[in-house]
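User: Please run a holo structure prediction.
Assistant: Happy to. Please share the sequence and the ligand.
User: Here you go; the ligand is zinc ion.
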Amino acid sequence: MLIKDQAICLRAMEYSETSQIVTLLTRSHGRIQAIAKGARRPKSSFGGTIERFSRGHIVYLPNENSSLVTLREFHQMYDLVLIMSRHLEAYHCALLGTELLTKLMHDDDPHEALFDAFVQYLQDLGHPTSPDTARRDCLGLLIVFQLSLLREVGLYPMFSRCLNCKAAISPCQTVVFFSHSANGLVCHDCEMSFPDRMAVSGEVMGCLAQISRISGASVQTLLQVETLIIDHFTYLLHTRPKTAKWVLDMTLAK
Ligand SMILES: [Zn+2]
């Protein structure tokens, strides 16, 4: 039975002379892998080669013997592809968001809110409040998206209480302790029990505990927040995200 959905392309690879294998994030059916036969032909039925970040309505046919579905239609819009081709910082942040999303989601496990958040994230990356703040805006959007991703997959860290004794912890303190293995904060009384805890400035933790603070934070602070988040994803995924260095280098460069 043919299935209709909305989708955005996370990854596209060449397959044979005329076809592609694509990883799509769909709104109602989660992540899927699909073969797009003839997608690379000059008169492709998909309106052109399928590109990363192209999006639109799709029709596909599930395969009983394989997780690889057959893509029949993809009415592609290239607006997000265009945005990414114009803004390098946005592109790097989009790639990191895509890598984390791809690694944390499972096939056929839908998260409609996350699909919407991802599309909105990519759109917002292309519309900084001003050219002067593009770098800071991109970093702030990336941080907010990563927190949404953690929340949606059930891995949101505890930022308001000690994971161990449940004591409330104010992000306004000068220094707080964060443990990747405990997935959140530990208080001064408990920190010795967590060998991997690290001291984090109240300024950095304030951005994580109250995302409204992100818009007023400096690039330097956001860089520290992002470094902590990347270290956290590295712990969760047992491997450092490959595209993380582009985001951190981009921010260090200026
Ligand atoms: Zn405690």
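The chain has seven helices and eight strands.
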